[in-house]
C-alpha cells in the first residue's frame, strides 16, 4: 500500500498545482475533471507497466491500478470511471509487458471498484451484495484462467497433479484474496475521503 499512497500523494501535488493555475486563469471545472481523470489513468498505467518488473506484479499491481479508479467513482461517477478504465485497459494492452496481468486487469481488477460502488449504492442487502460480488469474481477468474492458458498455449492436463486439478485450490484461495481485496477498496475509499480528498479538491471546490 506504500507505493499506492505515494502515487496518490503525487496526484495530490500535481492536482493542487493545477488547481491554483486553473483558478488564476478561470478554467472551468470540466477541464479539471478531464485533467484528474488523465492523471489517474496515467498512474494506473504506470502500475500496469511495472507488472513485468515486480515479482508479484502480475497479481498485485492490477489490483492497485484498479483501486485508484475508485477515486474517479467518488468524484465524478461511474461514467467517467468507466472511461478511465477503458483508456487504461487499451494502453496497458499496447504497452504493458506482462499480458497475463493485463488480462486480470481487464477481466476483473480494473472495473471491479466501479461495480462494487454500484452494488453497494443500489443494493442495500449485504448478503445479496456479496453473492453478486463473488459471482462476478468467480466468472472472471475462471474466464481469465482459460484465456491465459489459451494465449500461453498451456495444455490443461498439465495442471493435474496426482489426479487433483490444482486450479481448484487456486480458485478457493482466490476467493479468500478477493474478500481481502474488496475490504482493501473499502478502506482505501474511506481514507481517501477522510484524508486526501480535501487536499486534492478542497481549494478548487471553494
Structure description:
The chain is an all-alpha fold. It has 8 helices and 2 strands; from the N terminus they run H-H-H-H-H-H-H-E-E-H. It has helices at 2-25, 29-49, 57-76, 78-95, 99-109, 112-122, 126-151, 167-205; strands spanning 160-161, 164-165. A two-stranded antiparallel ribbon has the order 1-2. Strand 1 (160-161) and strand 2 form a beta hairpin. Helix 2 (29-49) packs antiparallel against helix 3 (57-76) and helix 2 (29-49) packs parallel to helix 4 (78-95). The longest helix has 39 residues, at 167-205.
Quick overview:
The chain has 206 residues and is an all-alpha fold.
Features:
206 residues; mainly alpha; 2 strands; 83% helix; 2% strand
Fraction in helix: over 70%
The total count of strands amounts to: 2
**Low-confidence sequence ranges:** 8-16, 18-27
What's the SSE pattern? Answer: HHHHHHHEEH
Radius of gyration from the alpha-carbon trace, in angstroms: 18 Å
Strand content: under 5%
What is the topology, as strand order, of the major beta sheet? Answer: 1-2
Write the layout of secondary structure elements.
Elements: H1 2-25, H2 29-49, H3 57-76, H4 78-95, H5 99-109, H6 112-122, H7 126-151, E1 160-161, E2 164-165, H8 167-205
Antiparallel strand pairs: 1-2
